Amino acid sequence: MKHILLSVVVIGSLVVAGIGGTFADFSDIEISEDNYFAAGALDLVVSNYLGVEYPDDAPTFFMVTGALPCCDKSVFLDLHNYGEGFQFSPYAYLHIKNLDCGWVMPKQPYAWLNEAGDKVDGPASLPVVGFLGTGYPRPVTEPEYVAEMGGVAGELADGTAVTVVGMGEYGEDCRLQRHVGVIKIEVAGPYEHDAAPMTSDAVPAGDWRLINLDAYDDDPKDGVIKLNELVCEEIYLGQIPACQKIWVHIALHLQDYDEEAALIDGVITETYFAETYPEAKWDHWCTNAYQSDYMMFDMAFELLQTEVP
Hints:
This protein is mainly beta. It starts with a helix and ends in a 5-residue tail after the last strand. The chain is 9% helix and 29% strand. It has helices at residues 2-17, 143-149, 259-264; strands at residues 44-48, 53-54, 72-81, 91-102, 110-113, 138-141, 151-155, 161-164, 180-192, 209-210, 234-239, 244-254, 294-304. It contains three helices and 13 strands. It has a six-stranded antiparallel β-sheet with strand order 2-1-3-12-9-10, with no helix packed on it. A three-stranded antiparallel β-sheet has the order 11-4-13, with no helix packed on it. Strands 5-6 form a two-stranded antiparallel ribbon. It has a domain at 65-103 and 168-309.
């Protein structure tokens, strides 16, 4: 009897404790397997104006040789966002960097020509009357040397020679960059990849929008944004959603450099020629100072997750 009573007490205790009733109600379990978390990636691909893509690195777009003053050069390219980040539209920037330039030694200051136009030995100094002289041998100046080091830059209407002081070895300290102006940077898009124009000519005229560069102008009085003013600046081009692209147009201009501008810049202390015919053709003698000089720069196209302040 004692054993039976003990068994009843144990069973009762288990029931009170809930053992045996755990799965008495209906239930169901669903398992989510192979959960995965991978970081996205920004992937910017540059294409040329014909739509040829360069997945690894952008090519050289500006290859200008023998440029004359008032020469314009334009390049067209597109920026394609192949990235996988879908929560936002990343920000595209143009960054001009690694600007450098070189100075080319000018030729000797003077050459002397005979009546046939051949170089000959001539007097050690220029004739007193007239730039071209009254006879032969006739002196011909080297314009780049004169602009940099001084000498006869031209003549007045009566033939009187005009001697200028010169501006120094212009270009040796990278001054050429001061005369490469940025005509415009403009952008079209973004376009869905399949709907993007294949060439720049196919971009509707109304789609182009100018990038305002006024904030980078160090010298507003000249009215021109110089390339060197954009160095180390993050120039905002716009947002590019995933699988979309924008077209970019960059136009540069090699400027003339007249006496008035050189005077304002403090490069020369006086002007020698008025802007009237026939002296007007000599007014840009300062431009000769950067003949054959050159400059080099890189263009970094950047796609950033957050906007640059």
